[in-house]
Amino acid sequence: xxxxxxxxxxxxxxxxxxxxxxxxxxxAVKRSGIVQGFVLVRSRHTTAAIACNESxxxxxxxxxxxxxxxxxxxxxxxxxxxxxxxxRAHLAQMLGFGHTSWAPVRDGRLDLGTWQRMYLVELxxxxxxRVDCMVVGE
Length: 138
Fold this sequence. Notes:
- The structure is a single chain.
- 25% of the residues lie in helices and 38% in strands.
- By secondary structure, it is of the alpha+beta class.
- The chain has a single domain (2-137), classed as YjbQ-like (Jelly Rolls, Sandwich).
């Protein structure tokens, strides 16, 4: 079994921003030389998430609106009393998104569904995020 690891950097523009990192994941898979296996994509941040979902701006807007409804921006959260107002972002990751996603690698290529893309989802504020991309297989 072979293992290939890369770190992807992505710049986010706003809270609840969906950044398509599929091209970078595809490059990592190609560089790995792995023909059959899987790729694991993981956010290094507790206020950012990874999602594998449909490439549809309306769906992303629906997700933003639902998260805004569940986790209102102007509510006071206990965690925020520590001085950093990022409880909402931590909760969004726990309740709506996770920090990892995976996909099969077949014939040396990332094998996503017809409409699927890999996204880094910003849950706090704009910044450069780091994402681990690990390809495992033969």
